[in-house]
Amino acid sequence: MNRKRFRVSRSVVATAVAVLLLAGCGGGRLDGGFGGPVGELDHDAVLRVTSSSPTRNLDPYLQTSYGGWGYITTVFDRLTTVDKDGNLIPGLAKSWRFAPDGSYLEMVLRDDVRFHDGAVFDAATVVANIGRGKNLAGSTVKAALQNITGVDVVDDHTVRLRLVPGTGVELPGVFSTNVGMMVSPKVIEAGTDIRNGPGAGGSGAYEVREYVPEESLSLVRAPGTNWDPAAGRLAGIEFETIPNARTRLNGLKTGMTDLSWVSSANEVVEAQSLGRAGSLGVDEVVFRNVLGLYMRPDGDLAKPEVRQAVASAIDPDAVSALFSGTCRPHRQMYPAGSWPADPSYRYPYPFDPDRARALVRSAGGAKIALAFGAGTNTENTANVLQGNLSKVGIDASLNPVPNTQNEPRYIAGDFPSMVANSFSPKVDPAETVNTFLFGPYALANGNPKIRDLGAKAADPTLTHEQRAPIYQQIWDLALREAMFVPICNQTNAQIFTGKVVGVDDIPWVDLGIFDIRHVGMTK
Asked: 159 Cβ partners below 8 Å, 6+ apart?
């Protein structure tokens, strides 16, 4: 899946972000993609990172949100991974294929991986981890593994995952998340609680030195040679959770931080200015997440014409202006250029106040309460939407909710609508359908045609080329239900000091998180 990048000017030193990284962890001169030689890797460096999302625990199978994934990718390796553009690539699994009849997924595993405790990674390890994910008390990955009916060991480094008929096509993509993170079989056998300290239970390039939940995480490079030659370039990594974007940006300006991210409009605009001045390195990435309005068929919103009126009343350009142009209008579910997206798609409810007014009149009036995370960048968005809706005769009120409660309470059915930036297209569209169209968000509105098409598109024997037009039809039908109004994609600005290299290649930045296994620093 394509990932769109926008760069601003950088100082000669900061241009190291486009560096052609050396294979392996050995020394040697680095060639900067813009500025020529920029120095040697400093294997004694400690990278200081700040992030808005907290890490509540370190157990891959007990993650309650994807905001915590980035912290533990450095410790636990995954069966598959994604590159900077969201393309699925090998990880601990070298290759995979579905049976001709779709009855199983076969994965061929690396044979050169050991966990920090000395245990060998093999087929039996995969069996143990899938069993743990299914049976661990409080497991948050159980649902993702539910279509696996059993795991067969073909040989020491080959496994076959037996599947419920017609399911499992999303699993290779799912395994690039915390679901695919492998824990040492010694840890599993001992029943160790790794929420606050995995010890030597990972196989990644780093081990945990100290951890304070929701505050900080200190990592050191694991002893020995990691199987991934591009990982482990640093002596350590220091993570600190700082929710305020202004504080994170100031940390870079004062030299207290080496790497962070900001997506609030004011901070992005300032970061652009600092990048043009050469004070900091800045790399702008368009979010994969779509900022939009969720709706449930409750109250007036149970009427299709009211939901269509709401959709037609929303002006994406007004929202983009609110973000100083850093939220780019986007009116479909998948990013442009990704295989499930429709390059010729036209959103059925473009901004049309006259049409919205007519729909409101035909419905006999309309009322909506817009829930949003208080103090987040959706607050101003909600205010703009309230103005849009009021102009067409919709009685729109604001419902500020503590940010930690907004999404869970909407999912629980407490609110009929919600302004949020949480619509996140998955690596495989089958997972998007399961999560957003028929999961807790129910954007398909129970449409049986969407369900039938979803089952057809999830056939693991089909190619991307065969599945794409089916999914394009699904997205169109779902958006016509007007349960979700896509508005725009925000910008996530990576900001970093001149010694940090590999920033251009960080996966997941378009999700608002990060995978910094391959980041390094120069001397």
From this structure: 106, 107, 109, 123, 126, 127, 151, 152, 153
Pairing mode, if any, of strands 484-496 and 394-401?
unpaired
Task: Name the one residue in this structure whose structure tokens are 């200015």.
Answer: 273
Q: pLDDT tens, 250-303? A: 999 999 999 999 998 899 999 999 999 999 999 999 999 999 999 999 999 999
HSE-CB at 248 with a 13 A cutoff on CA atoms is 27
433: Cα separation from own chain's centroid: 16
H helix count then E strand count, the chain: 14, 23
Among 29-43, 92-106, 271-285, the minimum mean pLDDT is found in 29-43
Handedness of CA 103, 107, 108, 114 (dihedral sign): negative
Residues 331, 334: Cα–Cα separation, whole Å: 9
Give the phi and the psi of residue 55 in degrees, each rounded to 5. -110, 115
Residue pair 463/470 in contact (Cβ under 8 Å)? The answer is no
Any bridge partners for residue 486, and if so which?
292
Q: Which two tokens stand for residue 298?
A: 């409750």
Q: What is the pLDDT of residues 428-444, one digit of tens each?
A: 999 999 999 998 999 99
Rounded Cα distance, 266 and 258, in Å: 20
- The sheet with strand 93-98 has its strands ordered as 93-98, 104-109, 158-163, 148-155
Q: What are the residue ranges of helices labelled H in 181-330?
A: 185-190, 245-253, 265-276, 304-313, 316-322
User: Are β-strands 259-262 and 484-496 bridged in parallel, bridged antiparallel, or unpaired?
Assistant: antiparallel
Decide if 442 contacts 505 (C-beta within 8 A): no
Collapsing DSSP to helix, strand or coil, 131 comes out as helix
pTM over 0.90: no
Confirm if 296 and 444 have CB atoms less than 8 A apart: no
Which DSSP string do the residues of 456-470 spell out, in sequence order? HHT-TTS-HHHHHHH
Which tokens go with 201? 């239970």
474 close to 453: Cβ distance less than 8 angstroms: yes
User: Taking each helix axis from N to C terminus, what angle separates 265-276 and 245-253, rounded to the nearest 10 degrees?
Assistant: 20
Q: Scan for tokens 């959103």, then name that residue.
A: 347
Task: Retrieve residue 302's tokens.
Answer: 């149970």
Angle 142-146-152 (CA atoms, 0-180°, nearest 5)? 105
